[in-house]
């Protein structure tokens, strides 16, 4: 199976980038996009060149580190699937791929396909955690929670933090990611005691590093974890709730 690739090459954040053209003659339908890049790097190294830099870790669709643009779409055209789980068999008749890093002001290119997504880490530091007492574990039934509420919290907790939502948004917004964090923790008993403070801090971090929501929903369409668009509405709802309850209230 012959596959041609246009791959973005960039030596650093301040360097000029360009596309390189390559051909992989022995690709197979079972290869994932990352395995295709592995094979390409084998060829480049054999020819004395520098391999393409890209991120990966678990390669099971869990860690969220493998994101890049595939023919202009974050992760690739298969819906709700990260790049590491998109295989060539899913692209019948497609033999040309254009691979480039996520394009967003908040994600500067480190090198080639790897970008700096520490802006998402700043959102987590701002409010994506809960304060709990350490020591002996509490009884399982000490903090009651309905089954429906727990399932909703788990649905929002499925976000893998890949940044595809930011790359898809023309304004570079991270509302889907922040909304997933806020919606998850607002439904958990452990997170309610600092709910207002969390919302204010995360909204401040959003305004500082990311753009405004585009209102078109591109983020939800490319999310590999299937986070619903309702997460975006959660940001505005939690912002309003925190404002109405006042600066001196944490809950």
From TrEMBL:
> What Pfam families has UniProt attached to this entry?
Fer2_3 (PF13085), Fer4_8 (PF13183)
What protein name is recorded for this chain?
Fumarate reductase iron-sulfur subunit
Q: Which family does it belong to?
A: Belongs to the succinate dehydrogenase/fumarate reductase iron-sulfur protein family.
InterPro entries assigned to the protein according to its UniProt record, in alphabetical order: 2Fe-2S_ferredoxin-like_sf, 2Fe2S_fd_BS, 4Fe4S_Fe-S-bd, 4Fe4S_Fe_S_CS, Beta-grasp_dom_sf, Helical_ferredxn, SDH/FRD_Iron-Sulfur, Succ_DH/fum_Rdtase_N
Domain 4Fe-4S ferredoxin-type stretches: 150-179
Q: Which gene encodes it?
A: frdB_1
PROSITE patterns, alphabetized: 2FE2S_FER_1, 4FE4S_FER_1, 4FE4S_FER_2
**Cofactor requirements of the protein:** [2Fe-2S] cluster; [3Fe-4S] cluster
Q: Which PANTHER family match?
A: SUCCINATE DEHYDROGENASE, SUCCINATE DEHYDROGENASE IRON-SULFUR PROTEIN
**SUPFAM superfamilies according to UniProt:** 2Fe-2S ferredoxin-like, alpha-helical ferredoxin
Question: What EC number is given for this enzyme?
Answer: 1.3.99.1
**Lineage of origin:** Bacteria, Bacillati, Actinomycetota, Actinomycetes, Propionibacteriales
A GO BP term here is: aerobic respiration
